[in-house]
Design brief:
This protein is α+β, with helices and mostly antiparallel strands and 155 residues long.
């Protein structure tokens, strides 16, 4: 597996990976209406590209794109998704480690789905609170989680 920096040309592939992952991996924890609200199948590619470009964004490849994630300078881990066919191979862990190490902050935060919560708990994050997020007509449960990184430096 190769982990590399995000490139503008990746955006459409990442949006498709996001949609496919949400609609399969998260299907056991969310209703079809919630999944459609979360990942409707179309994203504003220009907005996604701007956001990914503004953050420290990484892409994992194994011949094809198998995952991606991004974190901002304040330590907010915004997205972390692994292709539905490449789950449980260490890709998410490798991306998450690289993202955590990319910022110099005292605390990293993430809004984790029900599905992702055990992954982050295993990595040393703690639940700050459960919340309901409104996406159109659907309300989705997720968890604000954080991981202390020590002295305000890298992990």
């Amino acid at each position: 597996m190769v982990i590399r920096a995000y490139r503008h040309g990746d955006c459409e592939t990442l949006a498709a990976l996001f949609h496919g992952t949400v609609h399969t991996v998260n299907a056991g924890d969310y209703t079809p209406d919630q999944l459609r609200a979360w990942a409707p199948g179309t994203v504003d590619l220009a907005a996604w590209d701007a956001s990914l470009s503004a953050h420290h964004a990484l892409v994992a490849e194994e011949g094809v794109v198998v995952g991606f994630g991004d974190i901002d300078a304040a330590g907010y881990l915004d997205r972390l998704y692994v292709h539905k066919d490449y789950q449980r191979r260490g890709i998410g862990a490798a991306l998450c480690t690289a993202l955590e190490q990319a910022v110099s902050v005292g605390c990293i935060t993430v809004h984790a789905s029900i599905t992702a919560k055990p992954f982050f708990l295993h990595r040393g994050y703690r639940v700050v609170r459960q919340q309901r997020v409104q996406r159109g007509a659907a309300a989705l449960t997720n968890y604000v989680m954080e991981k202390r990184t020590g002295q305000g430096g890298r992990l």
